Amino acid sequence: MKHIVPEQKRVFLPVVDNNQLFPVGRVFCVGRNYAEHSKEMGDDPERDPPFFFMKDASCVVPVTYSNVTPISYPMATSQFEYEVELVVAIGKGGRHLTMQQANDAILGYAVGLDMTRRDLQTQAKKKSRPWEIGKSFDESAPIGPISLKNAQLTADISTAEIGLKVNGDTKQISHISNLTWSIEEVICKISEVFELRPGDLIMTGTPENVGAVVVGDIMQAWVAHLGEIRVSITG
């Protein structure tokens, strides 16, 4: 049977040192998962624990380590902001996962950007409306290749440096050890309200000092032991 409209294109991420591709399913995002970022957003990290929102899979832009990948300055905003994040790729699904099952569910890790139309997000927050207009839009999730999990990489990632530069100037810098909820805790919490599936991605939160970019800017985002992605803003 034919489709009545053209089928939407699937998004796939490359896997480091592997000729297979990772088919992107859902993209879960964690809010307020670094205490200092919670504070700069006007929240109390002790009172307001992290929570979850989503981006559509079509928001994902595959980024290589070798080239600068362009994304367009989006419509309807004058405050387009970066948020560097560690991304976790899920290889096994399930509900109500234990900490060990959460660890087993991890296929690998990547560097990502949760690009945000901050002015639209702020307007939505003030009116207690959903955030999708500020978070889930075209090209809002540039993500690098997935590095497959192994014991050494998992140990290294748990304390790895995470950071972002704009035009060579350091804007964000922290360590994964500063996560309010650990990677495994995040997976457990998500699995309490959603059944996780292979192909899901989890963006684990951003450190403090988020800020705006304009056309012509180049962002360099990295997590130690994974590599660096470079993304430019075009008109």
TrEMBL record:
Annotated ranges, domain Fumarylacetoacetase-like C-terminal: 27-233
Listed GO MF terms: acetylpyruvate hydrolase activity; metal ion binding
InterPro entries referenced in this protein's UniProt entry, alphabetically: Fumarylacetoacetase-like_C, Fumarylacetoacetase_C_sf
Keywords: Hydrolase, Metal-binding
Classification via Pfam families: FAA_hydrolase
Superkingdom to which the source organism belongs: Bacteria
Regions crossing the membrane: none
Signal peptide residues on this chain, from the entry's feature table: none
Protein name: Fumarylacetoacetate hydrolase family protein
